[in-house]
Amino acid sequence: MKSVTIIIAVTLFSSLPVPLVHGQTSPKPAAGEKSAAVAGASKRTDVYHVHFTKAALGKAAQLGDWLKTPDPNNPMPDHFIVLRHQDGDAWDYVVITHLGPKATVEAAGTAVPPDKRDLSAWHTDTFVNGPSWEDFTRAMGIDAGSKSKTTGSVYSVSYYRPAPGHREQLEKMIGEVPSAPSDTTVGNVLMQHLEGANWTFLTIARYNSWDDFAKGEKNSVADTTKKDSPWSRLRDHTDFHTDTLTDRIAP
C-alpha cells in the first residue's frame, strides 16, 4: 500500500494480550452466523500500521485511488484494508496495513511520489498490535472466501483513551465477547497502540449492511439509560473516544 510510511530505527514488539465494543454497544453476529470472540481480545501477535488521513481540497477521489493501490515493493502488498469516512470524525480514509510479527523503522523512510505529495492535507501514523492476519481478515470479511460477498459491509471505527487508572477496565469492557440481543455486528477487531497517536485502543465493528447497522442502533437506544448499560460503562472508564461510520474501498 503506497500511502503510508511503514518504516521509522526501532523494532516494535506486541504487548501483553488484552481484551471490544463498537462505539457504544457490545456487538453480536447477525442471525444465522456463528458467534465469535473479538479478534485481538485474547491474542495480539501481529503488528499493524494505522494511517488516518484527510484529503486535500478537491483531491479526495485521487487520494482514495492511490490508497487502494497495492504497493508491489511491500513484502505483503495485499495485506491491507482501506475504509472511507461516511459519518463521524474529521478524517476521510483509514488504511490498516499488516506488517507481521514486528516492524522496523529506518532513516531512509518511504519515498512518496512527487505527484502524490499534495493529495493529503494531514495524516497520522500509529503502530498497533492486533490479531493474526487470518483472524483479522475473517472478522473484517476480507478473507479469500468472503470479500466478494461483503462489498456492502459497514464498519464502525472507534478509538479510545482510557481515563487515568481505568485502562484495564476499559480494555476488559471493549474486549468482551459480543452478547447483547440488540446487536447486529458480524465481526469485531481490537487493537492496541504501540507507537504514534494519542489514543490507546482501536476497535472496528463490521455490519453486513446499512440496514443491519440501523436496526442495531435502533434496538440499542432503549438500553442507553439502563444501569450498567454499555453506554454508561464506557463513560465510566474513557477519557475520550470517537466513532466513525465507513464503507470499504479496498480490497
Give structural notes.
It contains five helices and ten strands; from the N terminus they run ββαββββαβαββααβ. The protein has 251 residues and is an alpha+beta fold. It has a single domain, classed as Alpha-Beta Plaits. The chain has an eight-stranded antiparallel barrel, surrounded by five helices. A hairpin with a 5-residue loop joins strand 8 (187-195) and strand 9. Helix 3 (167-174) packs antiparallel against helix 5 (230-237). The longest helix has 11 residues, at 210-220. Mean pLDDT is 87; it is low at 3-32.
| Total helical segments | 5
Structural class: alpha+beta
- What portion of residues is helical? 10-25%
What's the CATH architecture name? 2-Layer Sandwich
What is the CATH level 1 assignment? Alpha Beta
Number of DSSP-assigned strands: 10
Poorly predicted runs are: 3-32
Radius of gyration: 17 Å
Largest sheet: 8 strands, antiparallel, barrel
CATH topology: Alpha-Beta Plaits
- Write the element-wise H/E pattern from the N-terminal end onward: EEHEEEEHEHEEHHE
Mean pLDDT: 87
Q: Roughly what fraction of the amino acids lie in strands?
A: 25-35%
